[in-house]
Specification:
The complex is a heterotrimer of chains A (about 80), B (about 120) and C (about 230).
Chain A lengths: L4 H18 L7 E6 L2 E7 L2 E4 L1 H4 L13 E4 L7
Antiparallel strand pairs in A: 1-2, 3-4
Chain B lengths: L9 E4 L4 H6 L11 E2 L3 H33 L4 H25 L18
Chain C lengths: L1 E8 L18 E5 L2 E7 L9 H17 L3 E2 L5 E2 L2 H10 L1 H11 L2 E9 L16 H33 L3 E6 L8 E9 L3 H14 L5 E7 L11
Antiparallel strand pairs in C: 1-3, 1-4, 1-5, 2-3, 6-8, 6-9, 7-8
The chains are: A alpha+beta (about 80), B mainly alpha (about 120), C alpha+beta (about 230).
Chain lengths: ~80, ~120, ~230
Amino acid sequence: MSGDLEHDERLVLSELLNHVLDKGVVLTGDVTIAIGGIDLVRAGLSLYLSSVEALEGRGPRVGGGETDALSVLPGERGS
Amino acid sequence: MPEHDPDEPVLERSRGSGAAFERELHALAPALPERIDADPEHVETGLARLVLTVIELLRDVLEHQAVRRMDGGALSDEEVERLGLALMRLDERMQELKNVFGLTDEDLNIDLGPLGRLR
Amino acid sequence: MLYLYCLVSAGREPPPPSLRGVAGAPVRQVAVQTIAAWVSDLPSAIEAVTPELVRAHDGVVREAMRAETPLPARFGQSFPDESTLRRALEERREGIARGLERVRGAVEMTVRLLLDAAAPGPAERPAVGSGREYMAWLRERQRAAEGARQRAGFLQTRVAQAVGGLARGEARSGASASGNSATISHLVACGDVTRYRHLVHELSEREPELRLMLSGPWAPYSFAELPGA
């Protein structure tokens, strides 16, 4: 494997951005909304969704690639 | 003790893949900011982006559920028609909202890890 | 404000006095019992993302990695003051300690895979049409996306199989925003990096149609998440 140096620098930056912006530890799991430097609202975002069918016991079970229930927490991956 | 060099990581590519990886220099959507602050000019966009991302996430789940119900055979033709029209209108509204705030699908294209991205 | 670079064990060597991070600021260590954070004091929070800032952030993380593998922080996190940071460290102390243990003596290697522009997904959303047509279009789009996901997973698994036991941990990404590539990262012991490269080279030679890009070593950004919220 080999590469042209100039192109590679941009690819390295691209990979660096991918690591540094999307990954890495997030120390707080909350979103703080501030205006003018004054924190006003702190919101813990957590969504748990389940299809109507699943709730009523009529739907297929969660698992095996199905996404009946979806849990999303910012700063975390997957359910 | 790590033995590696702290300088930039080494990068290697398959033979002949240079141009393709070059094209793949896509704009990386920055992570959602943990702190949405700012001067009045930016605060609306930051907040809008957060809210629209959540709505798009919900909309994606709704669309998946709608298709599943349709394929499950439990919906009448009329129900499928109504569902489709409602989702279509919802999609139109979302495009309008995105336009208002100058946000593209990429801006809202969060990475859900193992679930992939929204689009 | 305190800008956060990474989390480390408290007992390790502190940042060298000559180290400079974001905006050329010096770096110091804030410790809470057995864990610590590397930070810079800045007049205000970072609001932009530029290559210089990102390189500065990663530069500090790499410096930390000389002595001991840190948990790299995501770019852009600031705390209004030291007590807020200390509180956050206190709250997550156990998770952080476990996280540090998990990455001890290891680095991250990343393989980016080009995905074939396979069966093109459906065209743009139908401008006008019946609800039924829209539903059919949704179904096709979802199927195309699922197909793309499966193909990416298949390629990622090929890499995982090639490196086998060298991987202490694995992290897969979904398709990129463009849909043209996906990555798989592995947590690899420092001493195994050369062998890891060799195995990926071999895979690339064996399967030339598998277009991949190997990069590393990285600090373990993909393995830095703390359990729970």
